[in-house]
Design brief:
By secondary structure, the protein is an alpha+beta fold. It has one domain. It is 23% helix and 31% strand. The chain has four helices and eight strands; from the N terminus they run ααββββββαββα. It has a five-stranded antiparallel beta sheet, with no helix packed on it.
């Protein structure tokens, strides 16, 4: 009987100290796949302080840290650029990982207040793939309706006109 109680105490202690939290179940560094149409666009990833952490061309995969300090989630910006196309910026954010609350059952206060906030495991990435279509310079993205006089349209259009009765 005493041996059974000792085994239960050891097992409970091990579960309390070694099955901490989100850092066991999830990760603190996430891969982000970055694609563009057209491919071969220049990609620059900067962190919340404006420091460039990656520079390359699409397609690519970048590994991003989820935490940005104790109890701070990371935020990044991905800038796409290619000659003849408009630049585009896509934000990358992290949100609270649901496994962080597993500390209430398994990890205890050590996991909740020290381990997960320090490692960044309390955060998860909001997206794992970025697919961006770059717009050619000077191209308008908004469709427009214009009423034109028959004398204003090009001759090549006139053969395609349909008479309305």
């Amino acid at each position: 009987m005493v041996r059974t109680i000792i085994k239960c105490v050891i097992l409970t202690t091990a579960v309390f100290f070694f099955s901490n939290c989100a850092s066991i179940v999830t990760r603190s560094v996430y891969p982000l796949t970055i694609n563009s149409t057209p491919s071969g666009a220049r990609v620059e990833v900067t962190n919340s302080r404006g420091l460039e952490i990656y520079s390359g061309n699409t397609p690519t995969v970048v590994r991003l840290r989820a935490g940005d300090g104790f109890f701070r989630r990371a935020e990044y910006q991905v800038r796409f650029s290619k000659p003849g196309y408009e630049d585009r910026i896509v934000p990358v954010t992290f949100s609270l990982d649901g496994w962080y609350f597993g500390n209430l059952l398994f990890g205890g206060f050590i996991g909740m207040l020290i381990v997960d906030p320090a490692t960044g495991a309390m955060w998860r990435i909001d997206m794992d793939v970025i697919n961006v279509t770059l717009n050619p310079l000077g191209a308008s993205n908004t469709p427009e309706l214009r009423i034109m006089d028959i004398n204003e349209i090009p001759e090549s259009w006139k053969s395609k006109l349909i008479a309305l009765d």
